[in-house]
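Re: duplicated header lines in exported structure tokens

Our pipeline writes sequence and tokens for each protein into one text file. With two proteins the header for the second block appears twice in some exports. Here is an export where it did not happen, for reference. First protein block:
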Amino acid sequence: MKHIYLIDVTNRDGVQTARLGLAKLEKTLVNMMLNELGVWQSEFGFPFTKHEINYLNANLELAQMGVITPMRLSGWMRAVPEDVEISWKLVPKLEYANLSASTSEQMIKTKYQGKRGEQEVINDMVKAVELAYSKGAKGIGVNAEDASRTDIDFLVEFAIAAKDAGAERIRYCDTLGYDDPFTIYERIRSLAEQVKLPIEMHCHNDLGMAVACSVTGARGCIDGGQDAYVNTTINGIGERAGNADLVSTILAIKHSSGLGDGKYKLDERVHLKHAWKIAKYASYAFDVPIPINQPGVGANAFAHASGIHADGALKDRRNYELYDYEELGRGEPEIIDTGRHIVVGEYSGIKGFKNVYGKLEVAFHSEEEAKKVLELARYANVHKQKPLTADELKFIAHYPEQAKKIMTMTPLV
């Protein structure tokens, strides 16, 4: 039976959103939470970008230590040999990557300014894929940017060349949110049938259809005989109008009438009970409130006001609720301390620091260890420029060497 797997791109596409961003420590916590949720792969950054190097290498160390596992950590780069060369030089333990090339006539003509034609795009992509494997890559996906506006015959040619070079998946990028659920179903099914390779859906929300296109594209891929992969971001954060929201996509696959019948199976590792936690953390880290009507995690997702609805929900929640709030990790009371509150900041002292960590039930073996973690916590506050969460404080205490590396940034000029 074919499955639908999740590849989250919050740490690559989400952080490219205008006016938004994440600190490297926050990106690390996102990876850990995505792993808890059961996401198959996190596209965790740009290995050719120098300010990402320490964060990327430290996260790969965490993966080797079993902290971020079994989720795969994948880099993103252009499908050209130069990017591959520098990426594996800077991040030598990288095992997975997606290599991206523009494939539409619009982009080939206007982005490349006549310097590269269709054949050059294919040739560079093939060389890049082969080079990545020679560097030690274990799995490479190939991206067709603006696939939804790419001639289908050229898209098939491009995908077959990628497959022959060793690519394990093709990423179909609806870069401008141009597809609708009907067109993407037909195009993805045709591509899967002709190329015989798993397809990734990467849908943007410019027309408000990112989730709909993602799940119907996945359906088309499975109907075409291949496993499907869906790109998501937490809370739909992404360039312009955003990407397919992670939680909404999971809910659609599990509960919609056309997908929830068992034929289109979601990866069994996905644990939706972590949805509430990860949505709240991303909202805090990006400093973007969760919309009140956000599926599953919005404040009104399970709220009823009208008499008819309230009466019906109280008699049987299935009257007006398609799924249970407990399924998303909601329902537990949240305690807000309204009295004395000691926090760890960039100017904290050892006594306040120990008070905070004591409440988190974190003990230190020695005064020296406590002072070391305190110094890291101070730097973390400078690094993030906002208060640390309990999960961030625990991470620093449990993995101080990786935390130090993640927060270390030396300009290379």
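Second protein block, exported in the same file:
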Amino acid sequence: MIMVFERSYQKMKIFCLGCAGKISRESVLDLLQSDKISQVTIADHNETNAKEVVSWLKDKRVDYVKADVFQTDQTSNLIKGYDLVMDGTPISINHESTKCIAKAGVHGVNLNGTGPEFAFHDDFAKAGKSYVPGFGMTPGITNVMTRYAHDRLDTINTIRISHGAFRPFAFSPAITETTRIEYEPDLESRIVYENNEFKQVEPFARPLDVTLPDPFGTHTQYIIPHAETQTIPKSFKDKGIQLLEVRGTWPPANMQLLRALYDWGFLENETVDVKGAKVGVMDAIASYLLQSQQGTTTKLYGYALHVEVTGTENGNPACYTLTNHHPASDGSIPDWAGLRAYTRSVGIPMSIAAQLILDGQVADIGVIAPELAFSPELVFSELEKRQISVNIKKS
């Protein structure tokens, strides 16, 4: 049941932590479409990038402050007085960023939802605040899609979540980091949920051909480490889930490169000597990709989701398949041209989650998994307003 909390304020102040990147600036842009927002502060350690975002947004409600999540007391003091934090910091520092938000005692949402956020559940609950970890496209919208099927099925047999992130290998340092981490050879969080237990799998495990919505086509996808696998089996344990797998793909050229890097052992990131300098081999490759045309461009841009949930409904076998659609990246709609077809897809859901929290349309206080936080129909309706549709097929 959605709990509507009373609010004594009309205008809201939002602290946007680490939002100088290409994705989370789209979250801020979407947020600014609401006249309920009185102030948005871009808080980032990179002053040059942050001020560029302030200039790009062209809105008198936006300002900048320098912030460092490793300075917990200082940053939490900056946050106090705001109504909510949108956290766009990289995966590797989500523990530190969430710690700052929890100490400040305000609402929050982030893009990644990698797990450390749940350690702060009691802090948020004690403050009477809600924090939703991982509300981009995936995790985020994929969780909500799964919830839609869950709400209609009596039992759940399998959940297969897949996505295609059609973007360059290295359009930003954070994305380059994400790409490398997901295929690290011994990554403990690369798991599936099967027969009531979590099982670690190797990179490129369990290949499956998945047909994504047009124009993205069919691609062989592999198990990836994602927050959906960690939270959904616990959230929906009442339905008897037997199998949950999360897969993903990037453009074919990206996947080809990743496979070669894995096969050659480069993903181990071992230190090598280059004319007397000690560097990690993947650090060197990442630096090259960030500075090259091959690493920063791709042919087709966008974000494609495919969620399939099987089980029983009214005593009969049933399967729900949910996909998404957004405007083409070909320039026919300028705001969705090129890379923005990807960055808007990922960034907009975080803004939606932030606004739903502020509107009191959130399920509870404390740290709440995305699949439990909001009504699926409400989220789908908000996406539709922003030219992102969710298509549902039952068989």
